[in-house]
C-alpha cells in the first residue's frame, strides 16, 4: 500500500492516523502501512470508505504534504493543502491581467507547442528501433511526427499574426485548440500501431472511458493534475484562473492549461510503456479499473515523477521540473522574464 515517498490508500475501512512522526494506516486494528513524515511527498486516497484523523491532516499541511482524493475511475474531487499556500498578491494580480495583456495568449501557445514537441519526441523514441524490425509501423510513426510538426509550426504563427498584444483569447481559443486537436488525432492514431490488439484501443477517449488503456491513461492524468495543482499553488498562482480552458465553477482551468506539456513525458510514456511490455490493465465488472491495477498505475506514475530528466543543463526529477516551470510562469506574468520556455522531453 505504501511506496515512499508517497502513501497510497485505497482499501475500504482503512484509517490514516498519526503516531509520533509517522503516518500509520490501520484496518480492524491491523497495521497496513507506516511512512515517516520526513520522507513523505504526498498522500493519495483513491478508494471509498477511507478515514483520516485531524492530527494526520494537521501534520501533513504543516509540512506542505498535499492530500489528494480520487474516485475509483481516477477523477480528482478534492485536495487538502496548507492554508498558507495562497501566493503573493502581486502574482495573482499579474495572472488575472495576463488574460487581457497578451501574456496569457503567449503562455498557452508556448505550452501547446511544448505539448506537440513532446508528442513528436515520444513518437521518435517509439520509432527508433522499428525501421528494420517493423517498417510499416515505422512509416506510420514517421508520418505522424511530420503531421504534428506541421501543426506545431501553425501554432507558432498564431502569435506572429496576432494584430495586438492584447488580442483577446476568446477569439483565438478555437484556432489553438484546433491545431492541438488535429495533432492529437495524428498522435493517437500512431500510438494505436504499437499497441497490442488485445487492448482493443478505440482511439483516445476522455470522459467515461471503459476500455483498459484509456482508463489507465485517465487515471494517470488524474494523479498528474494533483502534482500540477500543488506546483501552481506553491508558485503563488491561482489554479482556477486559466486561459485556454474555459472558466467553469469547480474546474481548475489553469491546472488543465499547465499540465499539457507534461502529459506525454509523465503519463503517456509510463502507461504506453507498460502496455507494450504486455502489462494488463485489469477491470472489474462495471468497467472500472481493478483495485490492484489502480494501485500499480499510481505507483508507476509516482515513480516516474521521481525520475531525473535533463533540464536546463542539469538533471532534475520530473516533479522538480514541474515546480520550476510553475515558478517560471509566475515570473513571466510578473514581468521578471521575457518569455516562457516549455519543458521538452529528450527521446
From TrEMBL:
Its cofactor is Mg(2+); Mn(2+). GO terms for molecular function: DNA binding; endonuclease activity; hydrolase activity; metal ion binding. GO terms for biological process: defense response to virus; maintenance of CRISPR repeat elements. The keyword Lyase does not apply. InterPro entries: Cas1, CRISPR-assoc_Cas1, CRISPR-assoc_Cas1_C, CRISPR-assoc_Cas1_N. Its EC number is 3.1.-.-. Keywords: Antiviral defense, DNA-binding, Endonuclease, Hydrolase, Magnesium, Manganese, Metal-binding, Nuclease. It is an enzyme of class 3 (hydrolase). Mn(2+) binds at residues 180, 245, 260. Homodimer, forms a heterotetramer with a Cas2 homodimer. Belongs to the CRISPR-associated endonuclease Cas1 family. HAMAP family: Cas1 (MF_01470). CRISPR (clustered regularly interspaced short palindromic repeat), is an adaptive immune system that provides protection against mobile genetic elements (viruses, transposable elements and conjugative plasmids). CRISPR clusters contain spacers, sequences complementary to antecedent mobile elements, and target invading nucleic acids. CRISPR clusters are transcribed and processed into CRISPR RNA (crRNA). Acts as a dsDNA endonuclease. Involved in the integration of spacer DNA into the CRISPR cassette. This is CRISPR-associated endonuclease Cas1. It comes from Winmispira thermophila (strain ATCC 700085 / DSM 6578 / Z-1203) (Spirochaeta thermophila). The lineage of its organism: Bacteria, Pseudomonadati, Spirochaetota, Spirochaetia, Winmispirales.
Amino acid at each position: 500500500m505504501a511506496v515512499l515517498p508517497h502513501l497510497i490508500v485505497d482499501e475500504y475501512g482503512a484509517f490514516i492516523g498519526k503516531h509520533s512522526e509517522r503516518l500509520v494506516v490501520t484496518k480492524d486494528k491491523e497495521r497496513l502501512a507506516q511512512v515517516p513524515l520526513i520522507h513523505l511527498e504526498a498522500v493519495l486516497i483513491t478508494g471509498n470508505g477511507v478515514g483520516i484523523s485531524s492530527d494526520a491532516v494537521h501534520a501533513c499541511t504543516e509540512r506542505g504534504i498535499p492530500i489528494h482524493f480520487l474516485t475509483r475511475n481516477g477523477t480528482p474531487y478534492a485536495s487538502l493543502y496548507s492554508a498558507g499556500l495562497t501566493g503573493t498578491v502581486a502574482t495573482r494580480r499579474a495572472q488575472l491581467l495576463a488574460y487581457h495583456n497578451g501574456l496569457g495568449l503567449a503562455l498557452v501557445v508556448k505550452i501547446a507547442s511544448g505539448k506537440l514537441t513532446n508528442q513528436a519526441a515520444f513518437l521518435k523514441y517509439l520509432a527508433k528501433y522499428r525501421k528494420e524490425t517493423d517498417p510499416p509501423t515505422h512509416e506510420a510513426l514517421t508520418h505522424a511526427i511530420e503531421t504534428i510538426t506541421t501543426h506545431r509550426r501553425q501554432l507558432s504563427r498564431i502569435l506572429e499574426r496576432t494584430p495586438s498584444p492584447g488580442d483577446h483569447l476568446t477569439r483565438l481559443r478555437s484556432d489553438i485548440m484546433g491545431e492541438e486537436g488535429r495533432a492529437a488525432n495524428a498522435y493517437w492514431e500512431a500510438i494505436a500501431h504499437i499497441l497490442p490488439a488485445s487492448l482493443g484501443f478505440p482511439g483516445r477517449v476522455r470522459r467515461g472511458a471503459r476500455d483498459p488503456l484509456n482508463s489507465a491513461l485517465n487515471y494517470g492524468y488524474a494523479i498528474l493534475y494533483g502534482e500540477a495543482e500543488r506546483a501552481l499553488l506553491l508558485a503563488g498562482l491561482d489554479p482556477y484562473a486559466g486561459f485556454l480552458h474555459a472558466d467553469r465553477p469547480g474546474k481548475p482551468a489553469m491546472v488543465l492549461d499547465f499540465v499539457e506539456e507534461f502529459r506525454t513525458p509523465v503519463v503517456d510514456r509510463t502507461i504506453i510503456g507498460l502496455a507494450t511490455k504486455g502489462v494488463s490493465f485489469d477491470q472489474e465488472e462495471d468497467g472500472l479499473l481493478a483495485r490492484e491495477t489502480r494501485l500499480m498505475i499510481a505507483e508507476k506514475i509516482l515513480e516516474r515523477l521521481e525520475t531525473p530528466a535533463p533540464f536546463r543543463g542539469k538533471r532534475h526529477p520530473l516533479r522538480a521540473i514541474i515546480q520550476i516551470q510553475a515558478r517560471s510562469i509566475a515570473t513571466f506574468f510578473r514581468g521578471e522574464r521575457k518569455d516562457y520556455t516549455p519543458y521538452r522531453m529528450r527521446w
